[in-house]
């Protein structure tokens, strides 16, 4: 014991001696780190576990991950991986064991033997550079050519003649199309006339061009067109139906948001692609100077003074419009007022202002040229790899073939939607009529839902009669009316429940009356009093006199609609009155709406209410009969109210904390433990108002309890209604939701039907029409350089409960062609895992990487199962949270997701689960002292390992030392979690001085490079998502090299689809499999791993299909397509081919 004490004393003395200059002696301590004993994870060599019946080329790595076969490895990786240190391998094995991964519990795959195409270079990295350079070089040279030139002078006068006119110094001449190889183009459309192009301007280094539509050239009157015909479009490569002899020559067309201009070009609708490519200056700007959603909001708030912290990025970024981009790069904005003619004007206005509008269009072309001159050098510098430019050009050639089935789809979806809409409206209208009867004896005052509605009515005031005779007539008419009313009530209102003599006598009386009024004169005499009353009616009559105000709002006046019908026909599920008409209750309490708080419910706590003036009274007695009363400790509530901070100067965080604390304590005092959100509001001193829980957390208010987020509450009996009408209306709403949200976009798709001579010979006599949609794809539409498009790139898969959700399946290849495509399996997870494993250069060396590469859902060893087990949540919920975390979401976001998945979960439980999940996955954040400061901290148990401190310890030590944390400590890292290595790598990329993607070295937007430590989550998200954009560009370039006959159609999420002739479908499928292999091998080698796991080398399946559905065997049954694709449209199942199937087909 004495020797141990002397040893500790010696250590303290050494520590004091080394730290005396840095810390006060009273604060000097020895910080020890616990050591973790580990056992050897491998008791025997892994190679001894080699499975039976494997090929001679079978390979596994040091953590039992099956790698590509020796046959493939030797063709792909010319330079072998440097031997990894045994200590690194041992560390990886121990890490996997600590997180419960048994690396021997694994299923091996069958090896693939294939002869790959010869690489275009010494290795896979050089291969992609060479093929990318070959594809983009001609277009890049054209871009440089036109950006470096001076534009020719503008024409003094534009000719108003149909088609293209070329303007040079020698004069103007009509041409079929601009023959130049490089053009800057701008197309203008008169919006009130439809989607047909009205006029266009283009410029090349040698000449200006103007295009005028036929209606404009012929001075036609204004007409609106619902369709766009092929002959209405602008030719760029053809003279009528005669094509240029050299359609494959490289040509470039530049524009700002050029995908819109591309959709107005004739040749872009052909089945066979030409050599024209489109370059978008807006996408280039997004790559170079794109902004976050917060930055976009700041830039839009032009009248507000920006925060000083925003000054660093506001000068180097802007919004995406041409005028904003021109101002950013060229220093001056451009005038866009003339554009209003195209937005709001008619064809007559275009006739009158033709010269000014042509100058305006030419001005946009010149502005685009100015932007290109400044932007192109910056873009090429920040995105140096040729694959980036080649991939963007390929992505901008998207193409969707359709046929007459498209029209059937629109009609079917519209019909079913209108039917359900009508039935839903009838149910709600009948409920409104039923509730309206509560006016009798003012029964609404005791109704738990309708008591606070506006029950005021309008009265029908009769004219005052000027003379006595009229007065007498009115009196007689009134008496007659009263008499008739009494008679009617006696004869009509009476009902009989059984057959009796009295019932037979009533029928005889009715027959006797009818016999007396057999002719028109008798009827006229009988109802003369009604004609007399007409003289007393006012000229302007109130609408629905005698009906309550809330009901009148649901009705339309006759005359406004040709199909008008009486009743509450304006009612929808989005109206505030609807939940009350359906008698919704939350946990048995009637729901209630307060404007400032949104939807909630009333919970009684007292059997007496406060007096109110001119305010509807809560039907407390009725409420107490239905709902239990909570007993409130009023003194406790009042005491809690006094705890709120009262000074405005106090920190907002403290105020928010105490306000929340008060509400939570008040809820506890009132003994309410349900799902409602306490907001501290009392109604008339007898009821608490609690807000309905919002999916995004307690600070948000619910705008509609009939929204889709509350559908599962009905099945859980948390939300209930009187009768089954509510669930029926909600079911209809769920079925209509997709079509309601996407209806205008889908119906607004510009479908162009091809003329018969442009179709393949076999289709020219076919009864069906064939055409195409050119989607408006912005090739770099987001900060992460992901492509964007409002309809197709966000299209979901067919859902049996959603009208119109079979949208994707209506993109159908013409006979003789097939779609070939695949879904990149877990693309972003694999990219994140690869980046994490790159630290140790061992595939599967981290728990996260191992679960992605070798995890098995059936064995519950995949990534989502590991997370679910750690946080005790369902696997599908863990999957969502995993992706959110990789995208940069924090613990608070995970808490909200857990609450969304399980609303019955308490806040404390959600916090606990989220904290446990993050500590298991992300680990803990530690700070390591720099070498020059760590000499005074001696711990024999640490050995050579660096000393680690928590954030609090690091801050305290730095404060005591009079230094900043980053001066004393290295960049903080994550340790101990399954994903620690991955997050360390992502942060290393995101926080570097010039962040660039790991694969193609694409740079982060300038607006975020100057972030000053802000937007950390966005930068992390960029590191993964932008790498995924690189991955897509690599695939597109590889496919263009391996399958030149394939035409790129579209990329959905992580899917790619190509259109190919039937005879090339299997060769294209093989090219797609090899493309995946090459792309992943390139990515691995770029991060220092010269190898590739077998599990990600090939697609699980390649889909060869006639339509654009996700999987070739989906029937796509929906309410608008109840019979499925085969019976509804005659579309059979396609083929889903593994790599072995493809190799067999290609023999």
TrEMBL record:
<dbReference type="Pfam" id="PF18136">
    <property type="entry name" value="DNApol_Exo"/>
</dbReference>
<protein>
    <recommendedName>
        <fullName>DNA-directed DNA polymerase</fullName>
        <ecNumber>2.7.7.7</ecNumber>
    </recommendedName>
</protein>
<feature type="domain" description="DNA-directed DNA polymerase family A palm">
    <location>
        <begin position="804"/>
        <end position="1064"/>
    </location>
</feature>
<dbReference type="InterPro" id="IPR012337">
    <property type="entry name" value="RNaseH-like_sf"/>
</dbReference>
<dbReference type="InterPro" id="IPR019760">
    <property type="entry name" value="DNA-dir_DNA_pol_A_CS"/>
</dbReference>
<dbReference type="InterPro" id="IPR043502">
    <property type="entry name" value="DNA/RNA_pol_sf"/>
</dbReference>
<dbReference type="GO" id="GO:0005760">
    <property type="term" value="C:gamma DNA polymerase complex"/>
</dbReference>
<keyword id="KW-0239">DNA-directed DNA polymerase</keyword>
<dbReference type="GO" id="GO:0006264">
    <property type="term" value="P:mitochondrial DNA replication"/>
</dbReference>
<dbReference type="GO" id="GO:0008408">
    <property type="term" value="F:3'-5' exonuclease activity"/>
</dbReference>
<dbReference type="InterPro" id="IPR001098">
    <property type="entry name" value="DNA-dir_DNA_pol_A_palm_dom"/>
</dbReference>
<dbReference type="GO" id="GO:0003887">
    <property type="term" value="F:DNA-directed DNA polymerase activity"/>
</dbReference>
<dbReference type="InterPro" id="IPR002297">
    <property type="entry name" value="DNA-dir_DNA_pol_A_mt"/>
</dbReference>
<dbReference type="InterPro" id="IPR041336">
    <property type="entry name" value="DNApol_Exo"/>
</dbReference>
<keyword id="KW-0808">Transferase</keyword>
<keyword id="KW-0548">Nucleotidyltransferase</keyword>
<dbReference type="GO" id="GO:0003677">
    <property type="term" value="F:DNA binding"/>
</dbReference>
